[in-house]
Amino acid sequence: MTGLAAQVTAALERSVMPSVIARGAAIRVATAEAGAVTLEVTGSPGAVFPLASRIEAVIRAAVPEVTGVRLVAPGTGPSPSPPGAGGSPAEAVQQILDAEVNPAIAAHHGHVTVAGAAEGWIRIRLDGGCQGCSLAEVTLRQGIEPLLRARLPGIVGVIDVTDHEAGTQPFFSPEKR
Length: 177
Prior knowledge:
three-stranded mixed beta sheet; elongated; GMP Synthetase, Chain A, domain 3; 5 helices; alpha/beta; 2 domains
């Protein structure tokens, strides 16, 4: 490991890694050359994506010679449609959500829809009882994301674009947590 990579790894371990691990992911320095750092995310990369700016700020503050930080997942590439799907990745994901996820979360008056898909990343929106639910992150990281990644190997991760603050009837309110 180069000196730059070792410094970045130390910065990650000091302040970022606990948050990343708590969200169901892992992160490691893949490359660190000429100030450019590439971090490889495994596990639940969608859990790390919202922390990207914080991760970069922590690294740049701890290691001033870093000029750029990039997050990647192993074997990233465009998300292919599953065999026989014949549609876009977003349509394939919505079919899985409608068949396997929405019936289960309907008991909590919840519903999940695809808000978009690009380069293997699936953006989803949680509605009804899931919007503002204190367990929405758990449902996403331990239920929805692993299911989608197992069914559609081209998926890099899932990003929650829900405005949870606007939820009016969360199944588990933060006070119940």
